[in-house]
Known about the structure:
Elements: H1 4-17, H2 29-35, H3 46-60, H4 68-79, E1 80-84, E2 90-94, H5 103-118, H6 125-139, H7 146-154, H8 160-167, H9 174-182, H10 193-203, H11 211-249, E3 292-294, E4 304-306, H12 308-317, H13 319-333, H14 338-345, H15 354-364, H16 367-376
Antiparallel strand pairs: 1-2, 3-4
Amino acid sequence: MATGRKAEVLKEILNLEKEYPKDDLISNYADFLKVRDYLHCNQFNPIVFTRLIELADEAWFSTKRVNRLSLLATIKKYLVSVEMKQDGLQKPTFAYKKHPLTVEIGKLVFKLFKNTFEAPQKIGFKQLDDARAICNRIIINIPLTATEEEWLCTNVSKSAIILNRVLRYPIKSAIISKWAKDNFENDNYRHRRAELLSWVIDENPNFKIDQPLLIEDFEYMNRRDRQAIQDYKDEMEANKVIGAELDEFFPKVKRYPDLFDDEDSLGFNIEEDADLRDPELNLVRRFYSVPTKSLDKENFLSPLIPDFNEMNGQFYKEQFTLYNITMIWGIGYSRLNNELKTELLKSYNSNATHRSIMKVAKRDRNISLMKFVLEIIEF
């Protein structure tokens, strides 16, 4: 296998040639090792991709020495290419847009995702998050069968990744719509109100949420943020106490050679400080602007937290607009056709909601909605 500069030149050549790989390019793990660094430089061959998926599935429970994460990363790199847009941002392009995957391949792909949750010990703790992130990327926008949809809904509480795959599933699903209705007032999903709403609207386009529900959402998210802030403060205080106690017993680490140390140290001082990292402050992500203030005014590195007094006044003053914006995004996230979306969205258009309407129109490439906005907009 080529290495170093030779490998770089070979990749450039393959990128330019863009050959269509032979169907039998990969028959076993040894074949995979030969081509893994260059496979993504070739054109997409669904048969080769299928073999990769099968190989990864076989390897997951194999007792042989295999690099499962490397298999997953190669699958993703072969499936998802990255294009550079004119504005300098990267745009992922999925090969299956031109080469639709069969239902059977979709099931195999999903099985890899499922394995990271049902048999995580096979990948190793340090690689698990990467494996889940890769598998999550692979199954985005892939329609599944009822069996996989049921698994997602049953296991939604296990991970934010699974929750995203449920709420952002690309096509209508009676199974997910039922789950959304059953969990419409579940505290765990209040911060995803518009996406939940979209699944109810899929089956009942005329459905509207009650205003009091948004107030309940708002107050719940406030309680959750306050608790997160208190937990953060408690953890920071605990770190200070532990740090002070350890500092009394352990010297500061020396990460440079100590030529005068004793022979047993091999020339280095190996005593280390305890690694007391700052905790994470996990606040609710909201779809409206949140006025903030510093948690500690005397520390410029202190995280920003919601200014609850100002936010409360803002919310109750603008709650009717926020209601309309929630409905706009609920309709926008739904899987209804653009014609029906346009008719439903017309009644929520105003100067205060115009920006949200246009975002939905751009997201859906909804020309009829844009034309409607153009006709009524005030210049």
